[in-house]
Specification:
Elements (H helix, E strand, L loop, with lengths): L7 H14 L3 E3 H19 L8 E4 L2 E4 H8 L5 H8 L2 E4 L4 E4 L10 H13 L7 H5 L3 H4 L2 H5 L5 E2 L21 H20 L2
Antiparallel strand pairs: 1-5, 2-3, 2-6, 4-5
Length: 198
């Protein structure tokens, strides 16, 4: 678990990045999965996610809750909605999003952009069934039984992204045992710091 501040500008521009990479329009479902892969890659390689969102295991795979709200627009208000509506809009058919503005790469670090590009090349551009692929990752799979038993969603733990998925899918950056342990320790320190502010 973590409580880092959610970065809505990065979330909106990540949606925009993948929409434009996909020719200007993308499904909400696909963009949510691509952002999951991006956060996973960045956490494993650099020790932090891109969006700082909270993830939930749901029927169709991992869902970043605040990114989902951004993509839906309706539940947003104020500054976040105004920002998002200048960048993308709902499109037809239903559940599609259309980019209406160039990607503002200034909101991202170089490593964020690296993660987005990696994910587009290895997942987005290949027209794969992203939902089925996300079901092979341990952070979702550990909640599979609870979801099958009737729960609509279960909170996911960021630390589970440091475990490797089934061998036939891309781990989104391979970790040595030493790197994995270092990432776990860094997340543990982060949780301790956050607890002081609660």
């Amino acid at each position: 678990m973590h409580n880092l501040p959610f970065d809505y500008r990065k979330a909106v521009q990540a949606i925009n990045y993948f929409a434009r990479a996909n020719g200007g329009v993308i499904t909400k479902l696909d963009v949510l999965k691509l952002i999951f892969f991006s956060d996973r890659y960045h956490l494993r390689k650099y020790g932090r996610p891109i969006t700082n969102d909270q993830y939930w295991a749901m029927q169709f795979g991992p869902v970043a809750s605040a990114v989902k709200e951004m993509a839906e627009l309706d539940s947003l208000c104020g500054t976040e909605r105004h920002y998002a509506e200048r960048v993308f809009q709902k499109a037809t058919p239903e559940y599609h999003l259309q980019s209406i503005s160039p990607v503002d790469e200034d909101v991202f670090s170089d490593s964020d952009l690296e993660a987005l590009a990696y994910v587009w090349t290895n997942f987005g551009s290949k027209r794969m069934n992203l939902v089925n692929i996300t079901h092979k990752y341990p952070e979702w799979k550990k909640h599979e039984a609870a979801l099958a038993g009737g729960m609509s969603r279960v909170r996911m733990d960021l630390a589970d992204s440091l475990d490797d998925p089934e061998s036939d899918v891309d781990p989104c950056w391979s970790l040595t045992p030493e790197e994995r342990q270092a990432r776990r320790e860094a997340l543990g320190h982060l949780h301790q710091i956050e607890s002081l502010w609660r």
